[in-house]
Specification:
- Chain B: It catalyses: a 4-hydroxy-3-methoxy-5-(all-trans-polyprenyl)benzoate + H(+) = a 2-methoxy-6-(all-trans-polyprenyl)phenol + CO2.
- The complex is a heterodimer of chains A (351) and B (242).
- Chain A has 351 residues and is α/β, with parallel strands linked by helices.
- Helix content of chain A is 42%, strand content 18%.
- In chain A, a hairpin with a 4-residue loop joins strand 11 and strand 12.
- With 242 residues, chain B is mostly helical.
- Helix content of chain B is 62%, strand content 1%.
- Chain B has twelve helices and one strand; from the N terminus they run E-H-H-H-H-H-H-H-H-H-H-H-H.
- In chain B, helix 4 packs across helix 8 and helix 9 packs antiparallel against helix 10.
- Chain B is globular and about 50 Å long.
- The chains are: A alpha/beta (351), B mainly alpha (242).
- Chains A and B meet through helix 2, strand 4, strand 5, helix 3 and helix 9 of A and strand 1, helix 1, helix 2, helix 3 and helix 4 of B.
């Protein structure tokens, strides 16, 4: 076991087991398991403990338990160790239902607040960051999404987690340009008022401000009780569903508000299966995107959450299962990969 | 699903828990650190008003120089006390109304005069994000927070010239790479007349004064509010630019 010169990272050993020394002051250090992360490096050195023998004994005991558990794990990578470590801890923590927030585990009731904070922080730079992170490709995805939807004239769309209004804008433009139609309606719904304000500002610079084609509403995708059942022709949720606490509830509400024959469409990040692209994509997401977030939006934490939440979201086939379970009829696989699976369009019909 | 680590956080009340949940546990990797250092250097150069770029540059390039600064603080008894007690400078810990009520010539009074003139508050400093040693993170935070105190003591204005002069001063005192980069490339932002003036007047002063005065990081500013500022300057070995 050794600590590298900076004292930041370690190699090959489960954390918190053996003490190291701070190179500069020569003090013995131990660190807290809670600060470990996906990146295989040390979070924070928490304690200076002069007499480490008793602490070490406890840690050694834990280490031996971990080692015996590790053999049950198929993956004996570093990640496997930490997962076991924390499974052992989870039993003793409080019993409120927990969900993931990126790679952290938080009580379910808190996730909404945390996600709200993230989006309030990024709202002003959201569009700029989207362009920077995806190198403008998100525009192509959204264009393709609307063309795949191919709305007819007079469609009523509920754009949930619409935020800054990319999808709503494209929907109205499509109806106007392809059908010459000015009767399409879109309700832009978002749980975060800051994002909605950015959307309002964007729409105020378009001709749609004068017409009554777009309405803005603050609402929670999991609880659309203000919206009557069977009232919309199409429902879209674009890059929003992975931030919801209970995806099944979102899908149930989507099913309820759509009229029979209505279409549910979801644009979301997915798993990249291509073995050549997957490691490059992973490296790009975890190394480059938080750096761009720090440079452009001065907020690395929110973009770290973003890339972690992409990892936590179910894969395309699992999500298609969830869509089917909500009652939607799915054609074929139910999903279409975009850009090697970096994004995917899911579609279901209420029949 | 991939076996990704899920670790429970200690249940703590209120906004502290929220803030802890919000800030990611993932430390930056070497690649990210290098990328950030280079890009924040360019960012800070092309947009000097972005405090967070300068802050990021300082944190990512700190490395051994920050440890040296910490060791310099450890060599002085007051510096040791600062490192032990870790006082923080923000609007909650500083009673600005009391400082305003102090007599003219007191350090606290001069400080509030500076804050009012430049229309800044003690809260305007970016938090340290990328330094993972507690003590070094505190040294960096203290360095940032003391910047306003340096302005008060050296009586330099906060225009680009004054800031660059102060950066040269800090370069001589602390030796941090961020100060070095700002000192080298910052003058390029000045028009040529100001630049010559900087190098003829301010920089020689900064180098001379910086090397002869005591390390300003070792001053416990929170205990000096009542003291006469000229007396403080004499004690520290500072002399003002004429």
């Amino acid at each position: 076991m050794y600590w590298d010169k900076k004292g930041y990272s370690f190699r090959n050993f489960p954390p918190g087991v053996l003490p190291g020394t701070d190179e500069i002051t020569g003090r013995k250090l131990l660190y807290d398991k809670e600060d470990l992360t996906e990146n295989r490096s040390l979070g924070r050195k928490k304690r200076d403990i002069p007499n480490v023998s008793s602490y070490c004994f406890n840690e050694l005991h834990m280490f031996l338990r971990i080692k015996s558990c590790a053999s049950h794990f198929k993956k004996s990578t570093f990640r496997g160790f930490t997962s076991t470590t924390y499974r052992l801890h989870e039993k003793t923590s409080n019993h409120e239902a927990e969900t993931h927030f990126g790679f952290k585990s938080v009580p379910e009731s808190m996730k909404e607040t945390l996600v709200g904070q993230v989006f309030s922080n990024v709202a002003s730079k959201y569009d700029v960051m989207n362009d920077a992170m995806s190198l403008g490709i998100h525009r192509l995805w959204k264009d393709h999404f609307i063309r795949a939807m191919a709305p007819g004239p007079g469609t009523k769309l509920l754009d949930v987690a619409g935020g800054t209004g990319d999808i709503a804008m494209r929907f109205l433009n499509y109806c106007k340009e392809i059908h010459g139609d000015n009767s399409a309606q879109v309700t832009l719904l978002d749980i975060n008022p800051h994002m909605l304000n950015v959307g309002k500002k964007r729409f105020s610079m378009t001709p749609y401000e004068k017409t009554s084609q777009v309405t803005f509403e603050v609402g929670n995708a999991e609880d659309l009780s203000s919206i009557p059942s069977n009232s919309y022709d199409a429902y879209t949720i674009s890059f929003g569903i992975r931030n919801c606490t209970r995806i099944d509830r979102v899908l149930d509400e989507a099913y309820r508000v759509l009229r029979p024959g209505g279409r549910f469409m979801c644009l979301e990040f997915g798993n990249v299966q291509n073995p050549a692209i997957a490691p490059l994509y992973k490296m790009y997401s975890f190394q480059i995107i938080p750096v761009i977030g720090q440079l452009v939006a001065a907020d690395r934490d929110s973009y770290q959450y973003l890339v972690e939440s992409i990892q936590q979201f179910p894969s395309q086939d699992r999500f298609a299962e969830m869509v089917k379970n909500a009652g939607f009829t799915v054609v074929g696989d139910g999903w279409e990969n975009l850009t090697f699976g970096i994004a995917a369009i899911h579609s279901g019909f209420k029949l | 699903m991939i076996c990704s680590p899920i670790y429970p956080l200690r249940a703590a009340a209120g906004s502290h828990f929220l803030r802890r949940c919000m800030s990611t546990n993932a430390p930056i990797t070497k690649l990210q650190k290098n990328l950030l250092a280079v890009s924040s250097a360019f960012g800070a150069f092309f947009d000097p008003s972005r405090q967070d770029m300068i802050a990021t540059l300082g944190e990512t390039t700190g490395s051994i120089f920050l440890s040296r600064l910490r060791d310099d603080m450890l060599r002085d008894p007051v510096g040791r006390r600062i490192l032990k007690e870790r006082p923080v400078v923000n609007s909650k810990t500083i009673d600005i109304t009391y400082l305003r009520s102090l007599p003219e010539g007191a350090f606290g009074k001069e400080y509030t005069k500076f804050l009012d003139m430049e229309k800044v508050t003690p809260d305007s400093r970016v938090k340290v994000q990328f330094i993972y040693d507690e003590e070094l993170a505190y040294v960096m935070q203290r360095y940032r927070e003391s910047h306003d105190f340096f302005h008060t003591l050296t009586n330099l204005p906060t225009n680009i010239e004054g800031e660059l002069a102060l950066k040269w001063f800090e370069l001589v005192q602390t030796g941090l790479p961020m100060t070095f980069l700002s000192s080298m490339f910052g003058p390029l932002l000045l028009p040529s007349k100001e630049r010559t003036r900087l190098f003829c007047k301010y920089v020689p002063w900064a180098i001379q004064c910086g090397s002869q005065s005591k390390l300003l990081m070792n001053v416990y500013y929170e205990e000096c509010w009542n003291r006469n500022i000229d007396e403080m300057r004499k004690e520290l070995g500072l002399y003002l630019l004429t």
